[in-house]
UniProtKB/TrEMBL annotation:
It comes from the Bacteria. This is Uncharacterized protein. Residues 29-96 are annotated as: Disordered. Residues 67-84 have a biased composition (Basic and acidic residues).
Length: 96
């Protein structure tokens, strides 16, 4: 048993009736709920807890690797000096 092909939607009697009718279609009425023109506003809540890269302890070798350098003694020493001089700002520049 083969099923008879359906005509394209734009050729259906329902679409023709909807085009000729100026009355709102019930399926498209939102009833005043939230949509693009009437968004839902949430009450203020607690402040979010943001973490940054400097919120955790960093070893000089970790900073050297995070900056894309090999952890050679020279790069680790440079990162150690950078951490000593700039503190968390040294990390924030690399890992925000």
């Amino acid at each position: 048993m083969t099923e008879k092909p359906r005509p394209p939607l734009e050729e259906s009697p329902e679409v023709a009736d909807a085009i000729q009718d100026d009355v709102a279609v019930d399926a498209f009425i939102t009833g005043g709920g939230t949509d693009q023109d009437t968004p839902e506003f949430l009450p203020p809540g607690p402040e979010p807890q943001w973490r940054t890269g400097a919120d955790q302890p960093w070893d000089p070798a970790d900073l050297a690797v995070a900056e894309g350098r090999d952890p050679t003694p020279e790069n680790v020493e440079r990162a150690r000096r950078e951490l000593a001089e700039d503190g968390p700002a040294a990390i924030e520049r690399t890992v925000p």
